[in-house]
């Protein structure tokens, strides 16, 4: 009698399918970002590696618990390295975004101040010379 892994390891297989979906989605996103030469490509690539590692470990859990534990230790080392790189990339991305936002906002504030100052000058000129002749 054959038993399906979906019957014996329902949670593991559900998590595996979620990891597989994330892997496929990030693979497509990585290709798109590579063609656009985006700075986010490395971050998406790291997410893809996380998902592939999780999917591999989950499949090994259904086959052998001991082998999956050994592989988990190896994947944990890779995970720590990738997590460190991803945090650096994410911090750099957030820093760049806030700098761009601050620069854009600063230019907007400068334009608003310039407009209000010119309006004040016009109103002061009209108050200085109440008679038009």
Characteristic terms for this protein:
elongated; 4 helices; 0% strand; 133 residues; mainly alpha
What does this entry look like structurally?
With 133 residues, the protein is mainly α. It has one domain. It contains four helices and no strands. It has helices spanning 5-8, 10-36, 41-63, 65-128. The radius of gyration is 29 Å and the shape is elongated. The N and C termini lie far apart (108 Å). The mean pLDDT is 78.
Report the strand count: 0
**How large, in whole angstroms, is the Cα Rg?**
29 Å
Structural class assignment: mainly alpha
Shape: elongated
Secondary-structure element pattern, one letter each: HHHH
Please describe the biggest sheet, giving its number of strands, its sense, and whether it closes into a barrel. none
H/I helix tally = 4
- Share of β-strand residues: under 5%
Distance between the termini: 108 Å
Helix content: over 70%
Q: Tell me the number of structural domains.
A: 1
What would the average pLDDT be, to the nearest integer? 78
């Amino acid at each position: 009698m054959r038993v399906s892994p979906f019957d014996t390891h329902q949670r593991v297989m559900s998590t595996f399918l979620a990891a597989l979906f994330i892997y496929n989605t990030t693979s497509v996103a990585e290709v798109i970002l590579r063609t656009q030469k985006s700075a986010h490509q490395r971050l998406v690539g790291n997410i893809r590696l996380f998902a592939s590692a999780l999917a591999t470990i989950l499949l090994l859990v259904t086959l052998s618990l001991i082998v999956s534990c050994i592989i988990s230790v190896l994947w944990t080392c890779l995970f720590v390295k990738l997590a460190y790189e991803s945090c650096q990339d994410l911090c750099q991305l957030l820093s760049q975004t806030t700098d761009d936002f601050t620069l854009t906002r600063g230019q907007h504030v400068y334009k608003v101040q310039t407009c209000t100052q010119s309006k004040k000058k016009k109103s002061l000129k009209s108050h200085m010379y109440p008679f038009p002749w």
